[in-house]
Description:
By secondary structure, the chain is mainly alpha-helical. The protein has helices at 2-6, 9-15, 23-39, 41-49, 52-60, 65-80, 87-96, 100-113, 116-132, 137-143, 146-158, 161-175, 181-186, 189-199, 206-221, 225-234, 236-244, 251-261, 266-274, 277-284, 291-300. α14 packs antiparallel against α15 and α16 runs parallel beside α19. It is elongated and about 75 Å long.
Amino acid sequence: LESFCLIGGIPVVMGLTSKRFPSECRLEASNFIQLMCHTSVLTLQMFISCRGLKVLVALLDEDSSPLVAHALNGISSVFDLQSPTTKYDFCRMFVREGLLDPLSGALLNVMANGNGEMKMKIIQILLVFSQVSQSDFHVRNAVGTRKVIRRLLRACELLEPECLVLMIKAVKHLSMNISLLDVLQNANAIEILVRILEEQTSGPYNTEISNHIFQTCFNLCRLNKSRQEEAAQAGIIPCLQRVAETQSPLKQFAIPILCDMASAGKNCRKLLWQHDVLNMYLRLLEDPYFQVSALESILSW
Length: 301
């Protein structure tokens, strides 16, 4: 296979994946590409150098499950490649080829078809992009489009806990970018996350899911009154109270949100009153770590 690649076979095979050719021919060509991505580091590097990433993105934007599976296997191999080229560089290269739109669309299609292995692969790839987006402007802009984020949040509503925990983690990474907070809010992230928080009350992934959601809500609500009010109306107050009254490390995220809500407006205070949060503020006066925040909340009231 390496000899075939060295004599110029890669561009020929890549050309056969075009929609101009019959589906059987395209399937065999994509199968061959998958083989190149997995045979050796050399064949994978040669494939990438022949602008192979563009072909992988094109294969991903298909209705045919085998073609999508071959594309996902190829993309995973690229990110697993041990080379001087970093994941950051590969993310930028994939962004230039327009990967995130077909990738997020493929996630919803795969979920509808019930293919668990492909679903997990897509989520793991999206998690890499969300992590890189924290420090890379171009990747952040690509991941942070309304269309992509709405698809990710839609997936959160439908995924089972094993996959959900990774997707929520990806959303948490996105919430660490200040420039993406408005996009997340406009995509109903707060309402969706609070609903998941209410539903995920038990199970092996419950603690980790709650951890990611509380941190995400903290990033969204901190110093933003409109998002605080939206979270209160979505029903987050009882969830925050449950954590605030325990010794859970998550209280460092829950209590500041509850304390900030006192100055978020009349409607927010009304909801806080209904849940007896004022008494919680009074109890927090005995806590040396949170007593200042509690006192400021009582003064705001």
